[in-house]
Design goal:
The complex is a heterodimer of chains A (116) and B (115). With 116 residues, chain A is an all-beta fold. In chain A, 0% of the residues lie in helices and 48% in strands. The radius of gyration of chain B is 14 Å and the shape is globular. In chain B, a hairpin with a 2-residue loop joins strand 7 and strand 8. In chain B, the strands form three sheets. In chain B, strands 2, 5, 6, 10, 11 and 12 form a six-stranded mixed β-sheet that branches. A four-stranded antiparallel β-sheet of chain B has the order 3-9-8-7, with no helix packed on it. Chain B has a two-stranded antiparallel sheet with strand order 1-4. The chains are: A mainly beta (116), B mainly beta (115).
Chain lengths: 116, 115
C-alpha cells in the first residue's frame, strides 16, 4: 500500500540528547514537510523540502535539522538546542512542490516525542 | 501574511444534530487554496477537501458540505446528521500561490458528538 511511514510512534529521550525521527513515503511525491503539534494547538511548519537535496526552513526551524538525500526519505533531527522538544511530530508529502490542483498534503501517523 | 482563524475551540453536539465549523482566512494573493483536514484520536490527519480561490461553488459529499464565500473570506464546513465517529479535531488550512506549497493551519476545532 502507498503511504507515509513514521517510526516509532512513541519516543522517549533524555534531555540534552539529539534524536532523529524518520519519515518515509512511497507515493513518489516530490515535496515533504515536517510539522510540530502541541496540545490544543494547530500545526506549525518546521522544515520542508520541494526536491531532493534541497530544503527550506519553516516557521519554527530553530533547534531542528533535516536532510533530503533520497526522494522517499526526509528525516528530522531534534537537537539539544531545541528548548522544548516534547510534542507530536507529523510528516507530510504532496505530489508537487508548488500550489496547484493536486497539491493537498498527505500525512503520516505521527511520532510523539517525550523528553524526560 | 496569511492567517487562518478557527474561532470555535470546542463544539459539543448530540448525535444526529447538524453542526457547522467556521473558518476565516486572510491572504493578499488572488490565487490560493483552502483545505479541511480531520484529525481523529489516532493523530493522523485525513484530507477532506481542497478548494481553489476561483471556484466558489459549494460542495457536498455525503453528510459533509462546504460553503466558500470570498466576500467574507470564509470556508465553513457543515456536517449533517452528525455521528459519534465524526468526533475529531478539524483543521482548516490555506496555501498561497506566492508561498509555494506551504500550508498555514488554523488552531483547529475539537468536535465531540455524544450518543
Amino acid at each position: 500500500d502507498g503511504g507515509i511511514t513514521q517510526s516509532p510512534k512513541y519516543l522517549f529521550r533524555k534531555e540534552g540528547q539529539n534524536v532523529t525521527l524518520s519519515c518515509e513515503q512511497n507515493l513518489n511525491h516530490d515535496a515533504m514537510y515536517w510539522y510540530r503539534q502541541d496540545p490544543g494547538q494547530g500545526l506549525r511548519l518546521i522544515y520542508y523540502s520541494q526536491i531532493v537535496n534541497d530544503f527550506q526552513k519553516g516557521d519554527i526551524a530553530e533547534g531542528y535539522s533535516v536532510s533530503r538525500e533520497k526522494k522517499e526519505s526526509f528525516p528530522l533531527t531534534v537537537t539539544s538546542a531545541q528548548k522544548n522538544p516534547t510534542a507530536f511530530y507529523l510528516c507530510a508529502s504532496s505530489i508537487q512542490p508548488t500550489p496547484g490542483p493536486y497539491n493537498e498534503q498527505f500525512f503520516g501517523p505521527g511520532t510523539r516525542l517525550t523528553v524526560l | 501574511a496569511q492567517k487562518v482563524t478557527q474561532a470555535q475551540t470546542e463544539i459539543s453536539v448530540v448525535e444526529k444534530e447538524d453542526v457547522t465549523l467556521d473558518c476565516v482566512y486572510e491572504t493578499r494573493d488572488t490565487t490560493y487554496y483552502l483545505f479541511w483536514y480531520k484529525q481523529p484520536p489516532s493523530g493522523e490527519l485525513v484530507f477532506l477537501i481542497r478548494r481553489n480561490s476561483f471556484d466558489e461553488q459549494n460542495e457536498i459529499s455525503g453528510r459533509y458540505s462546504w460553503n466558500f464565500q470570498k466576500s467574507t473570506s470564509s470556508f465553513n464546513f457543515t456536517i449533517t446528521a452528525s455521528q459519534v465517529v465524526d468526533s475529531a479535531v478539524y483543521f482548516c488550512a490555506l496555501s498561497e500561490e506566492t508561498s509555494g506549497s506551504r500550508l498555514t493551519f488554523g488552531e483547529g476545532t475539537q468536535l465531540t458528538v455524544n450518543p
